[in-house]
Amino acid sequence: MAETVFSKILRGEIPCHKLYEDDLVLAFLDIAPLATGHAVVIPKEPAETLDALSDDSAAAIGRVLPRLCRALQSVTGTRDFNVLQNNGRLAHQAVDHVHFHIIPKPNDAQGLGVKWPSGSLDHAAAKEMAARVKELISA
After folding, report:
1. What is the residue extent of each domain of the chain?
2. pTM score, two decimals?
3. Which residues, in sequence order, are CB contacts of 86 under 8 Å at separation 6+?
């Protein structure tokens, strides 16, 4: 895996405002926040995208995300928030290390802005895809 800013943060070469740390996960405040309390949650395991992450690291992140969200809601007084995770350049991933953003949404002017260009589901193709995915997951 290529060297990233997160690698340097994990090694302590770049300081951060830590919110949480355990053996598998580090969470800290984003240095370019979209809103007050914007946090980044990373696995300590080097993995570029979520599909490359081990089940143990993914589970560790899954356990801490709700706790961090509740704490950030309490500290910021903001009830609404987004949890964002991107994989690959086309999906807007800027740092090649798995990371989740917790972004409080206090009002329309702050936080994450999202456009959602909805399509329609082809039910025959969906049935086939669901069967293939279920088969791969159970293998």
Report:
1. 5-138
2. 0.94
3. 92, 93, 94
